[in-house]
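Annotated sample (chain length 1015).
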Amino acid sequence: MSDRSERGTSLGGRLTRAGVDDVPRAQRLLEDAALLEVLPDATEVLVGPLAEVADPDAALLALAKLAGVVRPDPELSALLRDVLTHDDERRQRLLAVLGASVALGDTLGAHPANLRVLADPTPGTGVPVAQVRAELLAAVGADPDAAVPVATLVGTAGVDAMRRAYRTRLLRIAATDLTVVDPLNRMPGVAAALADLASAALEAALALARADLPDHGAGVRLAVIGMGKAGGRELNYVSDVDVVYVCEPDEGAGVSEADALATGTRLATGLARACATPSGEPALWPVDAALRPEGKDGPLVRTLASHRAYYERWAKTWEFQALLKARPLAGDRDLGRAYVEMTQPFVWSAVQREHFVEDSQRMRRRVEDNIPAAEADRQLKLGRGGLRDVEFTVQLLQLVHGRSDDEIRSGSTLTALGALAAAGYVGRDHAARLAVCYRFLRLLEHRIQLHRLRRTHLLPTADADLRRLARSVGMRAEGAEGLLERWRQVRRDVRHLHEELFYRPLLPATARLSDEEASLAPDAAKARLAAIGYRDPAGAVRHIAALTEGVSRRASIQRQLLPVMLGWFADGPDPDGGLLAFRRLSDALGRTHWYLKLLRDSGTAAQRLARALSTSRYVADALMRSPESVPWLADDDELEPRTRERLAAEADAMLTRADEPVPAVTLLRGLRRRELARTAVADVLGVVTGIRAAQSMTVAADVVLAGALRVARWEVREARGLAQDPTRMLVVAMGRLGGGEMGYASDADVLFVHDPVPGADPREAQAFAVAVATAMRQLLGAVGAEPPLAVDADLRPEGRNGPLARSFDAFVEYYGRWSSPWESQALLRARPVAGDDELGERFVALVDPLRYPADGLDPAAVREVRRIKARVEAERLPRGQDPARHLKLGRGGIADVEWTAQLLQLQHAHAVPGLRTTSTLDALAAAHEAGLLEDDDLPVLVQSWELASRLRDANVLWTGRAEGAHTDVLPHDHHTLAGLARVIGMPPGSGGELEETYLRTARRARAVVERVFYG
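Output written by the structure step:
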């Protein structure tokens, strides 16, 4: 008794380790009389192999039943014993099928002779289609070689024979599928075999339908066209087989079209009945003709001409997408081929239908919206990150690009995906990942359906079902949790790639192109370019040829991009310049792994690049010098200004690594160049404009000045052999730098202040400070690899006649004895920007009484400020310049507004704390809040200052030149005005409106200045 108990416990443990859930039942089954008769040592033979199957419980139960069925048949009993006792492929096939499919186990029990199929290692995949067709036709007694096969085994007997033959072939396919080492890679072959089997079954069903008619449908040609997965040779184990029927009277047979259609309808109905209605053997699957013209409301069969008429006049977008997979499956092959040939031009021109891409995208969203909430997270097929995401993505890409590239015209999802990747329409990494995900989803779908041969696309929820599913796809070790985690990851990956590819802006833009526009042939391209505004179409064609010639992947992607981008360049004010800049940028970056991929795959990068290059030469040059800037086009966050803290940390890291002054400051200048590029791109694209752009440029300059001061101090110490600085240094920002209002052409106006350390020789300290200031200006302003930053110290006491740097005490003395009103006015912008913090605080405390006089500005000082302003207007305006068009010094321009704000600050800041600011706009707002400006005056002054400032920057962005008098002038020529208007975000053709707007705004501002400033 004890020994038997120990053996039972030991067996129970082995069964548990093998994955058996119901151990007591398994022990009873292993002692089943029929099984022991076939296999006396069943326990020793079976327990180990059961560990390898999906469901050991189901496999053992089915095996016990099978043993009982074959028991009376010595031959089959011997075959079963032989298969089970030998550790080879035959046993593996049998146990794999019984463990994965209860339905096929029942089939084997009902037809035990099929054990021979599992004992035969001949693969079920890769079988010639003709062989499978002949096999099923022979089952119903039809001649496979006949022009029109007709069954001789009719009625229920014929239907059951066809279904048994189908199940026998299905058993062989499943055995191959379940025993391959790499089921993911073999999945397409399995799906193709299932589609070929369905095609053969339809052929046999049609032979049965003909046999039911008295004349066998003589004189009537019927073609069965496969749609959906059957058409694409990617069928599931259990799926509706989507078909369309085409019918024609046979020439010379004397059958009218009406009679042919009536006969064709009876044949189609009989075919569907043979496949799906109840009989002695289980049904195969429904034959679904809902994809036919007019759907279920339309006639079941049509002639070829009727199909053509429908597609020409009435078909909807989704119907052309469905036709992409159309393939003759059964019946008259010539007629089937004629149907496909007739529909193909409709398929590949459908993209030109209005809103084609948008309709496809809406259709996908509708499919998702109609999924029951309870199923949404379990849907393999229709849900987010499911099979439909992959299929819709691939099909849309095919339909958009396939009109001009027949290499990507395939009904198979995976074949088409590979072709899209090979031609450069999809990134190779994206295609590879999408293909792996698709195979995994299809594998799950196959295994779920195979279990009971039921049509379902839902992931199970029961733990036992999930464990079985995990084991069936080779994830025995990972188990149910591992399977769910992989399923979630696959869904995330598929959804991400679907959204990235399916909603590309290039797709609707490409779809909207006519065939001529999509063509890059020289004559067609030249005509299009001239029509859409290129000034030199011949030159543009040369650029196109240089970008697209050859068979490289680079050229292939350019051929996708350029038809659309040429239009986007033409949307800008300078399409020729945009295309030239694009060619130069592509020549520089085209061989990188990321550049063309970014433009093809990003939702915004290509269109933004076209806009930026055709709008701003400054941006074009900036992107050439800062190629790392191009990816910013795809991400608004990358175009946002960097914080002072972030840039300061980056500068600190640069200087910490550097050991030579010039290379160190070159790195700092490169940082500023990069940030100017970021700001310029964001400015042209309308992401960061106006005062935010000015503040971004100011922060970059601040950080560079602080870094340059650090380097200059080190350089001067080294040159003089000093261990430490003899004086503390301070750089004070002035002008637009001090106000946080820098433009692309702004210099850095500064004061250099120092304060000798205790015990230091004042003369040595002064010399050191001047040397540091000189070194800073030289390091930042010298010609070099990176753009210079001119450091201007002309606002210092005594101007250019005074020392470059002064001690704090000297500033105290100067401001106490000789300071004039204009210097107090200049100090309104003073802001410590680099150097000793405590010295900065002392300097601010020193100048505050000057710029914010305790009792305001006395009348004499007010008169002096006004006199100086009048003199500036009279003397500094360039000779011959129209005052109304000078953005800085002209009437109502920048200087007018700033002097007005500054006079109000000098007069009232002692009593209005809000006026104590270096910012022009903040000062105006505070003046208005304090009642110093009327309600109507504030917006007038702000609008004029902002527009003039933007136009100064726009002059630089448009021309690409930051130096020269042009930056301060509103131009006269219409082309430049149109360019400036586009730079600041106005619509095409707004040059005249811009001119009128500025002149009107400036006039209104000047009227306020006359009243508020001049009194």
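Annotation: Residues 1-8 have pLDDT under 50 and may be disordered.
Annotation: The longest helix spans residues 690-720.
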